[in-house]
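[agent] plan:
  1. take the single chain provided in the ticket
  2. run structure prediction with default settings
  3. attach structure tokens to the ticket
  4. add a short note for the reviewer (M.T.)
[agent] executing step 1
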Amino acid sequence: MKKAVCIISGGMDSALAAFVAKSEGYEIVALHFNYGQRTEARELKSFNDIADALHAKKVVYDTHFIKEIGASSLTDRSMTISTVGVSKGVPNTYVPYRNGIFISIAAALAEKEGAEALYLGVMEEDSSGYPDCRESFIEKIESAVNEGTKEETKIAIRTPLVHLMKEDIVKEALRLGVPLELTWSCYKSESAACGVCDSCRLRLRGFERAGVKDKIPYAV
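[agent] step 2 finished; step 3 output follows
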């Protein structure tokens, strides 16, 4: 069976991307990164639950050097996560070049596993403005990955959500049977989701516009 490495954060976007890969006939290698983010333990639980639902092989890497780099409110608790509404421009929750780092590591794993595809849940139109979620960036790093691996290694980086809006993601996830109640999106809390950070607001807006109730607990 053909094989794909799927980077799964524990959120609903990456979960859907992995289920898309499964629906396209791939055997899944589920990859997760602990990097010192505020909700590291909760995201890891969601990753494990989603990977189990996919019957996937699990790989978890600790990349806490990302926290040491800092410059993001996700990893630096001296910085405040915005709760005033979805940010314009690049918010301080952006982790410098995180997707570039993750893709590079995932590509090495894909080469080792003999995988022909790497699936990401990045989305461009309805994201928080992260530069490493842009389609143009993904196209360029795919070229670099294939330039820097063995000649016989050919890895396609798949981003099936890149042009979707959050409500489209909710609808498609339900169609494919993604257990959205197992996913976690909150930037701040590991118990009840805060409901007011950018990620919670985008998630809640997606469910509202899709006409579906989100089953995870919210503090607000």
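[agent] step 4 note for reviewer: The CA atoms of residues 116 and 154 lie 6 Å apart.
[agent] ticket updated
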